[in-house]
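Running this now, will post back.
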Amino acid sequence: MNINPHHTTQRQLFESEPSWCSEQTSFGVVATVVVSQGVEKPLDYIIPERLLDAVEPGRRVRVPLGRGNREVLAYCVAVSARELPQKPLKEILAVEDEHPLLTPKMLELTEWMSGRWMCRWGEVLEAVLPAGVRLGTRSRETLHVIRDNASQTPSRAPSASQARVLALANIPHTIEELTAQANVSRAVVTRLLKTKQLMTCEGSVQSASRREVRHDRPEMLSDSQQQALDTIIHSMHSGRSNTIVLFGVTGSGKTEVYLQAVEQTLSFGRQAIVLVPEISLTPQTCDRFRARFGNVAVLHSHLTAKERHSQWRQIAAGKVSVVVGARSAVFAPTPHLGLIVIDEEHESSFKQSTAPRYHARDVAAYRASAEGIPLVLGSATPSLETFSKCLSQEWIMVELPQRVAGARLPSVLTVDQRIRSDYSCGAISGRLKAAIDWALGDDGQVILLLNRRGFATHVQCRSCGYVARCPQCDVTLTHHQPGNRGICHGCGLVLRLPDVCPSCSTARLGLHGTGTQRLEEQIRSFWPGAKVARMDADTMRTRGSHERTLDAFRDGAIDILVGTQMIAKGLDFPGVRVVGVVQADAALHLADFRAAERTCQLVTQVAGRCGRGIVEGRVVVQTMSPDHPALKAAAAHNYKAFVEHELPLRKALGYPPYGALVRIVVRSVDSRAAEIWATSLADSIRQELTTLSLPAGLEASSAPRVLGPAPAPIARLRERWRWHFQVHGPDGEQLRAALARVFLRTTVPDNVAWMVDVDPVEML
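Update: finished.
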């Protein structure tokens, strides 16, 4: 492996030499290790003779670190026999793992990621290996608790939160599962253990429930589907790593193409990874793969650590040939990888929001290239980055312009909310009400999208204009029911809202704006005979709730499904006759250059949930911006028109995909400190950018530049003031190298924290 020549040896960090250091020799076997936290660069340690056969790249080792020789866990990334430095190296103390956790190719991938997204290598290694895998290698038993039915009746009746825990604890759970499903703090479970109403028990966590699925057979493909499959198979036979983009309208049969491509991969004795957004990782999606291939590993955020470890081991042993999962499944340890598929590749959830801030699409492209295998991306609304690569013929695009089985795309009606002629049903216009009446009258189903959870978006005094805000953030409190609760959607703080205005002492506080809770209440009021359900982050907290709601909708037990964007993708229900977008431009005017792209994608995707059966569907889009190009394109089912409008704007401004972008956010409890250091850092970067040469053929207007700093759109979050700025440049690699030089000579004040986001997808 190519190790950074400037990496640090432990002895270089300290002047004194403890007596326990190994004796100095001319040559020795040295391990280069990466510490997961606190150390930027790889470190060198000598391997003692007793561990020569055990230390190898991919295993974790225990090493002494710092002046106090604190024992820490580190990842061995290279082993070499070489001349030793004059100052003795410290010795490796022990080897943690019986077998390597990472292959040489995965180590190379993680090293590339650390440079690509400007983060510590150790952070990447921790992200690649799930916690269950890291803990499971030492056979640590997960603590389970169960209700102690033999215990004496407590002197006091349990509280409501304790009762919820006890009801769930009739079967073994981990403490983490109990707290999450009962929506209580860990202290509640601890108290029940102390009072012996719960007891610990042995045994492993049961795997996530497997639904009974019928085996199905490949469907007959349309001409465009067959063309897409032939393109993928040709890439497999060629041994070249081609990226193939399936640009197909909703309902065009992209999933069937994936299934048959995976089937071809398995016929060669290879494995396949299929990535879908977490929000689309529904039982319905998993069932389609299980029905076709039987034993399928499903990796998602709701797996327990032990379940994830079990899946990981089966994949690494080659016992599972198909892996379906969300973003992190791109790291699945498939020894015989033959195909990677990313469905709904445009989804922002494929970009991790915390360090390391990688994008699964780029990781998949790197991994596919290293393995010499095809990468398949699918979407009805490809990201502009993907579309641009296809236009430049770097990637191959195959279009699927028609729905399968003769189904037609739904008609779309746009309702101009600026003309409020008929809103007798709350947030539902007269046109949307008529469409709902038509669907319900014909025993059809309805989906209503409102991408704002809660009851009211804000609480405002009608006398003085006071607005209830989070004391920790620059965010208005969202009113939630039950109870008069204000919840900050920035930091999660929950407060009881006042009955009178804190500013003018009048009792004229009003609930303004509509969230999914209020919309659900209005729907139940105006259609009392309809069976209504809501899907958002508030109702889908318990394990299995997502699955139960979708099963009920599929079985016809729900007539109207109200929800946020989680109902907009990945659902295929032939009974849906009407889709209503209650407020299409909710995110259209955010301070984010991708706002229009996201709005067009969201409206197009939710419209695609409709009309998949025999009867043609209807879509009603309510908006204050009916003439916006994003909404006009979505209403016309013409995503290409939006791309043709948006790409020239991006090119003129040098925004992705026509330039690299790095966002830097500075945080501090002291607003002035954040501003001063953000300004200082931005000035240092500006100075460094003046030394860069402009790539041939580009005009001076395309030269690297810094925009800002300025207060972030959310200027205060979790009691920290936030300033941000953007660094633009035509060459991403050149830009990252320049930033790295600045960061190396930068000293960060103690009262300031900062974050670097390469290729950001969120600008708030």
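The radius of gyration is 28 Å. More later if anyone needs it.
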